[in-house]
C-alpha cells in the first residue's frame, strides 16, 4: 500500500480516526507520519525502527512530560514487581500486569485521551465472545456487591449475590 500523502513510499502507519461517528482512514509512510505530527514521538527513535506499542506508549508518556510530578501518586512503584513509575514512563513497558493498576491514576487519563476509552470496546472473537462478556459481567457484579456491602445496602447486596450465583451455576 502506498502512502496517501507522498504517494512514493510504502505505508507502514495506518491511522483510523473516528470523530462523531465519522470514520477516516489514513495510510502513511513513517516519514510522513512524523512530518504530519500524527504520532508525536519526542524520544529518540531510529527512523528505520517500527512503531511498536512500547515506542508509542513511551512517546506518549514522554510527551506528557512531568505528569508524575503534578499527580498525586498512590504508588511510585509496583508492589508486585518493583517497577517504578519513572522506569515505566521511560521504557514504555510494564514490568507485570499489576503495573497498570499501580500506575492507573497517571496513565488512565492519557490512555483515555489517546484511545477514547480505558477499556476495550471493540470487536471480540465469536467463539470466546460469550465467555468474555460473562466474565466482565461477573466482575462488574462483584464490584457492585462490594460497593453495596460497603454502603451497608444489604438487601441490594443479597440480590447481587443471588444474581452472581445464578450466572455461575449457568456456566457449569
Give an overview in words.
By secondary structure, the chain is mostly helical. It has three domains: 1-39, no CATH class; 50-122, no CATH class; 126-171. Helix content is 52%, strand content 8%. The protein has helices at 30-36, 53-64, 67-70, 85-91, 98-102, 104-115, 126-150, 154-171; strands at 13-19, 22-28. Strands 1-2 form a two-stranded antiparallel ribbon. The longest helix is centred in the C-terminal third of the chain and has 25 residues, at 126-150. One of its GO terms (molecular function) is zinc ion binding. This is UvrB/UvrC motif-containing protein. One of its GO terms (biological process) is stress response to cadmium ion. Pfam families: UVR (PF02151).
Quick tags:
single chain, 172 residues, mainly alpha, 3 domains, two-stranded antiparallel sheet, 8 helices, 52% helix, extended
Amino acid at each position: 500500500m502506498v502512502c496517501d500523502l507522498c504517494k512514493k513510499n510504502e505505508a507502514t502507519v495506518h491511522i483510523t480516526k473516528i470523530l462523531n461517528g465519522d470514520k477516516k482512514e489514513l495510510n502513511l509512510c513513517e516519514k510522513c507520519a512524523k512530518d504530519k505530527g500524527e504520532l508525536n514521538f519526542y524520544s529518540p527513535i531510529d527512523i528505520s525502527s517500527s512503531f511498536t506499542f512500547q515506542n508509542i506508549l513511551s512517546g506518549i508518556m514522554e510527551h506528557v512530560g512531568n505528569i508524575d510530578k503534578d499527580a498525586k501518586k498512590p504508588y511510585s512503584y509496583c508492589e508486585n514487581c518493583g517497577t517504578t513509575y519513572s522506569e515505566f514512563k521511560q521504557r514504555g513497558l510494564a514490568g507485570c500486569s499489576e503495573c497498570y493498576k499501580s500506575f492507573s491514576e497517571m496513565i488512565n487519563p492519557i490512555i483515555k485521551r489517546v484511545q477514547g476509552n480505558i477499556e476495550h470496546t471493540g470487536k471480540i472473537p465469536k467463539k470466546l465472545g460469550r465467555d468474555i462478556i460473562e466474565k466482565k459481567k461477573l466482575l462488574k457484579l462483584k464490584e457492585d456487591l462490594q460497593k453495596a456491602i460497603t454502603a451497608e445496602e444489604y438487601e441490594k447486596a443479597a440480590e447481587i449475590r443471588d444474581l452472581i450465583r445464578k450466572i455461575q451455576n449457568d456456566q457449569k
